[in-house]
Structure formats: C-alpha cells, structure tokens
Amino acid sequence: MSRDILTAIQNQMPTFSKGQKLIARFILSSYDKAAFMTASRLGQTVNVSESTVVRFAAELGYDGYPSMQKALQEMIRSKLTSIQRIEVANDRIGDHDVLATVLQSDIEKIRLTLEEADRSGFDRAVDAILSARRIYIVGARSAAALADFLGFYFNLIFEQVVLIRTTSVSETFEQLLRVGPEDVVIGISFPRYSSRTVQAMRFAGDRGARVVALTDSQASPLADMATVTLLAKSDMASFVDSLVAPLSLINALIVAVGRRKNADVAQTFSTLEQIWADYGVYEQVEEEN
After folding, report:
1. CATH for the 5-76 domain, from 2.60.40.1120, 1.10.10.10, 1.10.3720.10, 1.10.760.10
2. How far apart are alpha carbons 125 and 217 in whole angstroms?
3. What pTM value is reported for the model?
4. Which residues pair with 187 in a beta bridge?
5. How far apart are CA 16 and CA 252, in angstroms?
6. CA dihedral over 14, 18, 20, 26, signed as positive or negative
7. What are the boundaries of each domain within the chain?
8. For residue 254, what are the contacts with CB-CB under 8 A and spacing of at least 6?
9. SS3 letters for the chain?
10. For every one of its 289 residues, what pLDDT tens digit does the chain have, with 9 covering 90 and above?
11. Fold of 112-278
12. Which contacts of 154-158 are long-range, i.e. CB under 8 A and separated by 24 or more positions?
C-alpha cells in the first residue's frame, strides 16, 4: 500500500471491531513500538488474540501482518528520534543477550541484501563509475564512515576522486561546483536520511551527472533522483546505525571495479608496496620459528 498507514487506520476506525479498535489505538499512539512487534506480541500488549491482529492487517488491505509491519517500519524509520530508537531497541532486545542479538541481526541484514540484490543495477553502477571523468562521493553523519572507506580505496584505483566534506551547505556545493554529465556522484545515506546528502545529489542530478544512490529502500529520498539505486538493508541497534550490510555492498563495489581495472590496480599496489616498505608504513611482524 502506498497510502499513509496511519491515515488509513484513522479513516477506517468506525468500521473496526472492538478488538481491532484496541489495536488501532495502540498503533496510532505508539507506532514506533508497534512497528517492531510480532503479531503475537502486539496482541498480548492490547489483550487480543494473534488472529485478531492478522485480521486487522487484512482489513487494512495488506496480504498479511508482515506486510503491514513493513509499511509501518518504512514510514517511521526516518522519523525516529535517538530517544525513540533507544526505547524501541530496549523493547526488542529485552533480556536477550545483546552480543548475539545484534550480530544475528546484522547477519540477517546481509542475507536479505543478497537475496534482493539487483544484479543489473549493480553492473550499471560499476560501468558508470569506470567511465566517469571524475567520481564524487557524498556521505554525511554516520554514513561518512562508509564514504571515507569507499573514498580510500577508490583513491588507490582512480586518479580523479573527490570525497565531499559536508561540514556546511555552502562548502558542499562549492566542492560540487564543476560536476557535469561526464561525472558520477555516489550518494550514501540511510535512516535518518541526511538532508545535506539529498541536496548534494539533487544538485548533481540537475547538472546532468549520473547519480548512484546507496540506500535502504526505493522509498528513500535518494532513490527519487538516482540514475542507479543500490539497496542494502540497514537497521538500528539502539541509537547506533547498523551499517554492516551497506559496508558489504561497498566492498563488492570496490572488488568489482578493481577486477575490471586489474592491470592498473596491480601496478598501483606494486608501487605502493615498495613505498610502504621504504617508509615503514606497516609494522614488520617477526615470524615465530
């Protein structure tokens, strides 16, 4: 469903049964928590059966509770404050082992990213990067770490790589001043989406540049203006953004580009190895006998 689920619930409130109205009122007042509850947990919270929750989802027009839950999650993930994130995470983790819960969640995100990967889109992104005159990389907030990682390796592979620093709006556009149709801009953002990244990508698109978006959903504001959209599942672990799957996708992008420029990359790293050895960049580890 493309419509706002909360509006749909409000509009259909008079038609719901007594039990369904309990579910509806809870979602309207605590949608940030309801979005991450199982059907069973939601039913227990409002004192109705799990089957009532499932029928409620069908009444709204969804093909099952998971579809309704996904709609709620997509609606709110970009809106949750840090405090709300902490509350939701505490509710989800409960008394479970934190280490196991977080790592299992990350494993699941990588699995889902692989299952839903758009291979042709990935190949188009690689082609666009390889044919670009200049490559711009934009990532703000927590996504800045991903942008730095991608920029580090792309600087070893390509000559013209610009890592955009988003310290201010004016500086962002100044760094993109000469972007044009022969360039590629890679924008990275996950909920909560950075307005600075969205603005930079819109500016690049208006200038005719090819725009590659690394984000979590086609509903992301980055997807609207992208030439190619690469999706990776992200999630929140309390106030912390889980970016394991996006980093894995970036790794794949670096490897794919590197394989296509294999001879150049081999020559670059041959030179770098000599420089690293001459200047003691890496600590020498003695092998044990």
Report:
1. 1.10.10.10
2. 17
3. 0.72
4. 138, 213
5. 48
6. positive
7. 5-76, 112-278
8. 150, 153, 154, 157
9. CCCCHHHHHHHHHHHCCHHHHHHHHHHHHHHHHHCCCCHHHHHHHHCCCHHHHHHHHHHCCCCCHHHHHHHHHHHHCCCCCHHHHHHHHHHHHCCCCHHHHHHHHHHHHHHHHHHCCCHHHHHHHHHHHHCCCCEEEEECCCHHHHHHHHHHHHHHHCCCEEEECCCCHHHHHHHCCCCCCCCEEEEECCCCCCHHHHHHHHHHHHCCCEEEEEECCCCCCCHHHCCEEEECCCEEECCEEECHHHHHHHHHHHHHHHHHCHHHHHHHHHHHHHHHHHCCCCCCCCCCC
10. 434 788 888 889 999 999 999 999 998 888 878 888 889 999 999 999 999 999 999 999 898 999 898 888 777 665 666 566 666 666 666 666 878 878 888 898 899 899 989 999 999 999 999 999 999 999 998 899 999 999 999 999 999 999 998 777 778 889 999 999 999 999 999 887 888 999 999 999 999 999 999 998 887 889 989 999 999 988 654 556 778 999 999 999 999 999 998 888 888 888 888 888 888 888 877 766 5
11. Rossmann fold (3.40.50)
12. 154/254, 154/257, 156/265, 156/268, 156/269, 156/272, 157/254, 157/257, 157/258, 157/261, 157/264, 157/265, 157/268
Nearest Cα neighbor of 183 from 137, 135, 222, 126 is: 135
The neighbour count for residue 30, using CB atoms within 10 Å, is 15
The residue to which tokens 């081999």 are assigned: 266
Minimal CA–CA distance to 211: which of 190, 170, 181? 181
Pair 132, 182: CB distance under 8 Å: yes
> What is the token pair recorded at 85?
């994130």
Q: Which residue has the tokens 């999706």?
A: 231
